[in-house]
Amino acid sequence: MSWTLQRPLAGQQTAPSRLWVAKLYYLVFFTAIGAIAPFFNVYLGTQGLSGTEIGLIGSLPPIMALLANPFWGAVADRWQIHQQVLALCTLGAGVISFAFLWATGFWPILILVVVMVFFRAPAPALVDSAVMDIVGRTGASCGRQRLFGSIGFVMASYGLGQILSTRDLDAIFWIHGLLLAIGCTFLALLLPVERIAQRTNLITGLKLMRKQAGYTSFLAMNVLMGAGAAGFISFIGLRILALGGTEAQVGLAYALNAITEIPVMFAGAALLARFRPSRLIVVGLLGFAAVYSFMALATSPIWILAASPLLGLLYAGFWMSVVTYASKSAPAGMRATGQALVSAAQGGLGWALGSIVGGMLWDGFGGGAVLFAAACAMVAAALVYVVGHRRAHGADTPAS
């Protein structure tokens, strides 16, 4: 089963030039993420939290995202208020971010993270949905929009890594909060989102997606991928510090990861035209497993830094393939819901599992065990996807 892009209501054609809003949104949003993601678990460590507590803080919010992503996506699709929902989400997440400046202890921090994630988690899926609709009508490249997010992430993670120390990590909450509450909220109201004349009932649409050959294995793959990614992202900073590295090297690792996404995103249209999305997904997953295994064996932060650029190359192709599949799998008027389901599987359930297991492995066996487990999750994700895709071979699936 395949779904064609529906035409917007008459008189609502989006000029390709309006894509600058999407580019700028990606830039600002991922600058905010780059300001907090590489250093948040380091901050938790300075607050005296154990590896298990850090794992729990990383696991419960994704469960909230598992609920928040489909909820906000369904609200946006049902009433065609994507701009307003996106603005509300980023405003709420930005305001909550400032509360971390006064929070101390495990439970207050956990509650704040859960609430912040409820608002922030749906934002990427809502933007991806809008961008996929625009590029479907204009012929633009989705990768060339998203690459601005990689640029923002690199600037923030590398720049802050050079100037921050464990004594002044409060700055990450100021930067994160201001960029979301002001920059992203303003841009959300300018984002060119088209109203769809044809709508599909939510329950009917979900049933249609579930019945598509290979779709269940696609979601299962995203759960396992999210688990592996959580183990890496949540603990790689602590792993670098444990090997004798510095905060600057933590920021550099994230920056090297993101900067190599940029050329792949730029050439995204040509890449997707040359290689099937299913192939890029499998190559990405197995590549992640290989790099994680190498990092698990590393005895110096230098080796981790040397391998980090490979992850960006792999992730860019993987991301473009996944959002393309999710967009083509969704019925008319449900593309935000489709992207949200993928986000919930990967950044919700998968991330929760990976954070819990990663925290326990960190306390019991150290960072090497966490990265080996993350590699195993990526291999399992590839196997699940390949088996599901082969069973669906011959069917008219988006990945075909």
Give structural attributes.
single chain, 400 residues, mainly alpha, Growth Hormone, Chain: A, 16 helices, disordered C terminus
Describe the overall structure.
This protein is mostly helical. It has one domain: Up-down Bundle (Growth Hormone, Chain: A), CATH 1.20.1250. The protein has helices at about 20-45, 50-80, 80-100, 105-120, 120-140, 140-165, 170-190, 200-210, 215-240, 245-260, 260-265, 270-275, 275-295, 300-330, 335-365, 365-390. The N and C termini lie close together (about 10 Å).
Mean of all residue-level pLDDT scores: 85
Please outline the major beta sheet: none
Summing up helix and strand content along with how strands pair, one would put the structural category as: mainly alpha
Strand content: under 5%
Overall tally of structural domains:
1
Helix fraction? over 70%
CATH superfamily: MFS general substrate transporter like domains
Question: Number of helical runs?
Answer: 16
In the predicted model, the low-confidence regions spanning at least 5 consecutive residues are 1-15, 395-400
Overall shape: it is globular
Based on CA atoms alone, the radius of gyration comes out at 20 Å
End-to-end CA span: 11 Å
What is the H/E string? HHHHHHHHHHHHHHHH
CATH architecture: Up-down Bundle
Fill in the CATH topology: Growth Hormone, Chain: A
